[in-house]
Amino acid sequence: MKKFLTILMLLATILFNVRAQNPIPNPSFENWSTGTSSTTLTPDSWNCGAMSGFGALFAPGSGCIQQTSQANTGSYAALLTGESITFMGFITYNIPGVMQLGSSNLDGMSSLLGLTDFNIEDFVTGGIPFTEVPEKLNAWIKFIPDGNDTMRIFVLATHWNGTERITVASGEYTNFNSIANYTQVQVPINTLVAGVSPDTLNVIFTTATNTTASANTQLYVDDVDIIMHDSTNDVYNITVIPNDATMGTTTGSGSYNYNSTVTISATANPGYFFVNWNDGITDNPRQFPARGDATYTANFIVDDGVHYNINVSSNNNAWGTATGGGSFPINANLTLRATPNPGNSFSHWSDNVTSPVRNLTVTGDADYTAFFVQDTFTITATAYIDLANLDFSQLSMGSVSGGGSYFYGDIVTLTATPFSGYRFVQWSDGVTTNPRTETVTGDATYMAMFVGIDYTITAVPDDPTQGSVSGGGTFTYGSTTSLYATPGSAAYQFDHWNDGNTQNPRTITVTSDSTFTAFFSTASYTITVLSNMPNMGTASGGGTFPYNSTTTISANANTGYHFTNWSDGNTSNPRTITVTGNMTYYANFAADVAITENNLEANIFPNPATDVISIKGVQMQQIEIFDVSGKLMGKWELTESNNLFEINLSNYPSGIYAIRITTGDGIIMKKIAKK
User: Fold this and answer.
1) HSE, side-chain direction, 13 A CA sphere, residue 352
2) Do 217 and 149 contact (CB within 8 A), yes or no?
3) Burial category of 246 from C-beta neighbours within 10 Å (exposed 0-12, middle 13-18, buried 19 and up)
4) Considering only CA atoms, which of 78, 60, 61 is closest in space to residue 69?
């Protein structure tokens, strides 16, 4: 951006008859960074306001200038809001949101004293280098006022004349109505001092014109543009006169086209001496560009013939210049000026006078040396910090060297060094050169942006016929991914990774290109064989076996019991099974039952039976039917003594069954047949 401004100023000087490009730095608020003393993002080249009171200086907080995505064009715009600051726990300062190219210091004491209105021009200093008088400023704004807040836009073009900073041109725009959608407003700029070129331009935006500004007022600003006046056809009148026509004559008066060279001179009559022009300049003849109507007066004094030498010099011509010296008659009044070059400051004269502009009366020969000192600036170099989201992660990705304290004009080399696993992308201002060199012209912050290097994680099976692997791909350094090894069929199982790890799935942290191979083996399964009735018998043949192998399982009944079937209904014993997965088999047993009859009588008919049998002739309390294995097939409790009961055998398999009838006189055992 600094190089951009330098090129603009050069073009404006050479091609003065062509409308200049937009000289406003960062006019669309696309570039944001963190200042050396700030904790929040601010737009590059733009500054917040500040507030003083009780001798203290308070800088606004996060509400000063906020980054917003509600832009007229591009990605971002600037959002200003009013702010309240509490001092010592009970004194509240209300200040408007302020944004400017220079700096401002608003007097918070006015709020306490009831002086709510102020002229912000009285508190503004600095700005950007600027040598032309602009015609107008355009800006796109949205304004949502609260209470009586009235927004303002100020444009100030100023010039340092050696004694004070004067306002050469200014413009102002005010509005108290709500502007809901982005609207372009124009600020006309009026020339106040003709014939003088500015050296500094400041543009100021405020949310209110008083110190009781509301914190709820919002001013959105985007796309700021300065429009230069095309003065190529303007003609200006230059008037050159002596302070006393009897003492001398002048030349150079006339009409001049804009920016054409004007040469003026003063010639003293005999007995008189030219001292200076009415603006203190002693050059004679004198040249300057015509940029407005102006009058120049040559000051002459009586010359008694005795002249004294006033020698004026600089301690370092590269740091600044000193003017006003020469040969003068006694009692001549003259002005000495010490003018620092950019990046330097005036310190004092050799006789310890600290005013850069001083008026002298000549009394004899004298020497005056102006002492200048170099300004120092702070260059902050760091990894990128996203304070808007409180993200400091890039501080651990790399380091930046080259920051420190430098003199104006020094060449600084900034180097971004990524840590292992990371790479440099660009600087926060979009520059991709690394290392980069910059010429120091002021305090500046440079943030290097880093990202993790992308690495490839390859995940493969040792034998694709046995299984597959997922989770590989391209990942950023420091990220994680999970790898999954999936057997291709029940015949295989995951065994281990090539690095010996047996976790599946497993999570890895990406630090380099890596290959992970999954090894599979023949699957083994567990065959569990249990007795469902341990008191009746045992079961054997369980264990761990390879897939598709065979094993024999057996059920062994205890005395008085016999095996009936397995839990899956199979009645083979022993039994051979093929292993295809984890399985559990329960052996079922039953008590041995002898199908015999006794001598107690009961009338059971028909027997054999097809479906229903009837029991008659006894007082029955309970009836039970067993199959030949002793398995209980049915049981009926009769709550009242019955001498007739029917049983449906239609769902019973054909065969021989035992029926047990409990009566009050004893138990009757009989055989029945089911067809």
Assistant:
1) 0
2) yes
3) exposed
4) 78
Rounded to an integer, what distance in angstroms lies between the CA atom of residue 206 and that of residue 451?
38
Residue 431: partners with Cβ closer than 8 Å, 6 or more residues away: none
Helix, strand, coil proportions of the chain in percent (round to 5)? 5, 55, 40
Q: Is the peptide bond before 608 cis (omega within 30 degrees of 0)?
A: yes
**Alpha carbon 562 to chain centroid distance?**
79
Residue 305 has pLDDT above 70, yes or no: yes
Instruction: Lowest mean pLDDT of 190-204, 267-281, 540-554, 591-605, name the range.
Output: 591-605
b/e map of 3-35 (b: 16 or more CB within 10 Å)?
Answer: eebeebbeebeeebeeebeebbbbbbbbbbbbb
336 within 8 A of 351, measured Cβ to Cβ: no
CA distance 98 to 205: 6
C-alpha 346: how far from its chain's center? 42
Query: Of 660 and 575, which is predicted with more confidence?
Result: 575
| CB neighbour list of residue 637: distance below 8 Å, 6 or more residues apart | 621, 622
pLDDT tens digit sequence for 210-259: 656 777 889 999 999 998 866 667 788 999 999 999 999 999 999 998 77
The pair phi, psi for residue 121, each rounded to 5°, is -55, -30
Strand order in the sheet with 326-329: 326-329, 307-314, 366-374, 344-349
Amino acid in position 259: N
In whole angstroms, what is the distance from residue 368 CA to residue 350 CA?
6
Q: Within a 10 A sphere around the Cβ of 237, how many other Cβ atoms?
A: 15
pLDDT level of residue 123 (50, 70, 90 thresholds): low
User: Under a CB-based contact definition with an 8 Å cutoff, are residues 150 and 209 in contact?
Assistant: yes
Of the candidates 428, 403, 406, the residue with the CA atom closest to the CA atom of residue 42: 428
User: Residues 662-674: pLDDT tens digits?
Assistant: 887 788 888 888 8
In sequence order, the 6+-apart residues with CB closer than 8 A to the CB of 316 are 372
Q: What percent of the chain has pLDDT over 90?
A: 37
Measured distance CA(282)–CA(274) in Å, rounded: 9
**Rounded CA gap, 405 and 400, in Å?**
15
Q: Rounded distance, CA 660 to CA 595, Å?
A: 10
Query: CA 279 to CA 437: how far, in whole Å?
Result: 41
Please state, in angstroms and rounded to a whole number, the distance separating the CA atoms of residues 428 and 425. Answer: 10
CA 543 to chain centre: 61
Report which listed range, 172-176, 386-390, 557-561, 583-587, is most confident. Answer: 583-587
Q: Where are the beta strands (DSSP E) in 4-119?
A: 32-34, 41-43, 47-48, 50-53, 56-58, 65-68, 77-81, 83-87, 91-95, 98-100, 103-107
Q: Which two tokens stand for residue 384?
A: 């990128």
CB 78 within 8 A of CB 43: yes
Nearest to 301 by CA among 362, 251, 247: 247
Distance of CA 320 to the CA centre of its chain: 43
